[in-house]
Write a structure and sequence with these properties.
Helix content: 10-25%
Radius of gyration: 34 Å
CATH architecture of one domain: Ribosomal Protein L15, Chain: K, domain 2
Shape: elongated
Oligomer: single chain
CATH topology of one domain: Ribosomal Protein L15, Chain: K, domain 2
Largest sheet: 3 strands, parallel
Number of helices: 5
Order of helices and strands: HEHEHEEHEH
Structural class: alpha/beta
CATH class of one domain: Alpha Beta
Distance between the termini: 95 Å
């Protein structure tokens, strides 16, 4: 047996359909695509086009999305407990520890859980309960200027 003697198994190979080669070929004129319509044209269907209205317009819309709302990255107090005692917590140190995704987006510390080590929070907003627990553990909180003025008005 030589290379030129090789053949595919019987019935496994079918010759390709040569469409649009005249009416006598059996697939002439419309080339098997019927008549007219979007699918008979070159290029096929247009992506995302479905008649009068797009899918986004047909979707049910509920509620209200406030695009001006500040969306904080949340850090729980129990997650700060794994930091060493006396650590200074900044936005960059939280990102380095893997507790937040970005140091530039707003961060807020919540008072969930307990903390035993004294840590120092610098320029990160936090809830009243979180502040009380940090100060009770011997830590300190230094807030940005805008945060301190809003707390004195309360």
């Amino acid at each position: 047996m030589r290379l030129h003697d090789l053949e595919p198994a019987p019935g496994s190979h079918r010759p390709r359909k040569r469409v649009g080669r005249g009416n006598a070929s059996g697939q002439g004129t419309t080339a098997g695509k019927g008549t007219k319509g979007e699918k008979a044209r070159s290029g096929g269907l247009k992506a995302g086009f479905r008649g009068m209205s797009s899918r986004n317009q047909r979707m049910a819309k509920r509620g209200f999305n406030n695009q001006f709302k500040t969306r904080y990255q949340i850090v729980k107090l129990e997650n700060l407990a794994r930091l060493e005692a006396g650590a200074t917590v900044t936005a960059q140190s939280l990102k380095d520890a893997g507790l937040v995704d970005s140091a530039t987006k707003p961060i807020k510390i919540l008072g969930n859980g307990t903390i035993a080590a004294a840590i120092n929070i610098v320029d990160i907003p936090l809830t009243r309960s979180a502040r009380e627990k940090i100060e009770a553990a011997g830590g300190s909180v230094t807030l940005p200027v805008a945060e301190t003025t809003s707390e004195t008005q309360e």
